[in-house]
Amino acid sequence: MDQQKIDIKNIPVHVEVHKPDSSHSGHYNPRDRIYVRAVKGLHQAIRRYMGFVFMGLFMLLPWLQYDGHQAILLDITEQKFNIFALTLWPQDFTILAWLFIIAAYALFFVTAFYGRVWCGYLCPQSVWTFIFIWFEEKIQGTRNQRIKLDNDAWSVSKFFKKAATHFCWLAFSLLTALIFVGYFTPVGPLFIQFFTFEASFWAVVSVLFFTLCTYGNAGWMREIMCTHICPYARFQSAMFDKDTFTVTYDEKRGENRGPRSRKDKDYKEKGLGDCIDCNLCVQVCPTGIDIRNGLQYECINCGACIDACDDTMSKMGYPPGLISYTTEHSLNGKPTRVLRPKLLGYMLVLVAVCVAFAWTLYSRVPLEMNIIRDRGELYRETNEGLVENTYTLSISNKSQHTVQFDLSVAGSESFTWIGPQQVSISAGETRSVPISLALDPYSTEQRSLDIRFTVQQADNPDVKLAQSTTFFVGR
């Protein structure tokens, strides 16, 4: 038995814990607040202009009127979405599903091609965060002034600067919340009723909830949303490959880092690269990372570090592009394949989904019909000796106007129609129309007949809907 034992050897294990070093003030301490430095450049100009355009659309769209009603109103209580001339009902869920699928594959396609640019340029979290940082800069000053202000003891000046900053944050958050809730309830009455304390309980709760969310996310959480909460930051790297354009530091050109004079033209002979280790790329980063450490999931591809580095390179007389949108293959001297299987796959699926969405929208009929048979009896004989079947046509007008509909039936036999053959239905209304069909039982030898009811808009024959059912003869 002793020969079957396995000797156990103790291996000493030493675990070294690295704690954040607060002595390096020029580097980002993950436990400290990030003071984002203002930067100008091509990419930041594009980001600001795009943010301005889409922020303007967000603020203005609820106020647009179309044909006497709010152009975009997603009325959840009434279970209908008005989007200009289009009204979507719960039965039109397929259209909304197509929209979400299109948005998802468009995001996948852009990410595979140009990295996480959605996060840096159009994500609401980033847009609102940069707006809040703008308020900080205008009230509290530059990055160094904000750091000094936070380190100073409390004074009247510091109190008023901090109070003014948070007041602007809360005011802008309240405006954001009112506009956002205005997409789901009439925006004009909402503003009036909210400030006159006449708004409904749920309207007030919704506005206050989204106000606190905006204030907390853009004012306090900021990069925490991007690095710890947003799921996109976690799985977006699965769409990257060596041909994806991302914000990248050219290590071969930049290393070794080190300060030097602008007049020093022999720095390469001293073993230095083009990076002067100014740390501006870290100071302008909204998530506080050092792009020189390589590709990191926290990077939102906003291009701020590119603009800061290019400005430094220009002042030093060096060529730009030490930090740039490039690919791993390009950095390694290999050609970048733009058209590759992954990107083509995303593009083909996106095109197919867009075609399906367009066809669903084009073939959509703004009415709905359900045929309900009389549950009491399949058929009955009249005093005239005819066989009568009773139906109820449930017709829904899914348009935004009152419409006149013509009702008809088609089959292999001639039926006697008993009931209205034209009905007027208001916008969004569902009308139950009881009708009966009568037939001479000796006109056919079949025990049942296939018939087809048709509902057609009186002034537009192209808008029609047909549905089949059965007529029981009973012989």
- Overall geometry comes to elongated
SS summary, helix count? 15
Computed CA radius of gyration, to the nearest angstrom:
34 Å
Task: Indicate the proportion of strand residues.
Answer: 15-25%
* Averaged pLDDT: 90
Low-confidence parts:
11-31
Q: Strand tally, please?
A: 16
What structural class do the secondary elements suggest?
alpha+beta
Q: Main beta sheet, described?
A: 5 strands, antiparallel
Distance between the termini: 93 Å
Which key terms come to mind for this protein?
single chain, 4Fe4S_Fe_S_CS, Immunoglobulin-like, 5-stranded antiparallel β-sheet, alpha+beta, 4-stranded antiparallel β-sheet, iron, Cyt_c_oxidase_cbb3_FixG, transport, membrane
Concise summary:
The protein contains 15 helices and 16 strands. It is α+β, with helices and mostly antiparallel strands. A hairpin with a 2-residue loop joins strand 1 (65-66) and strand 2 (69-70).
Q: What order do the helices and strands come in, and which of them pair?
A:
Elements: H1 42-60, E1 65-66, E2 69-70, E3 72-75, E4 80-83, E5 86-88, H2 93-114, H3 117-121, H4 124-140, H5 143-151, H6 156-181, H7 187-195, H8 201-221, H9 223-229, H10 232-235, E6 246-249, H11 251-254, H12 280-283, H13 304-316, E7 323-326, H14 328-331, H15 341-362, E8 367-373, E9 380-381, E10 387-397, E11 403-410, E12 416-418, E13 422-425, E14 430-439, E15 448-457, E16 464-472
Helix pairs in contact: 2-15, 4-6, 4-8, 6-8
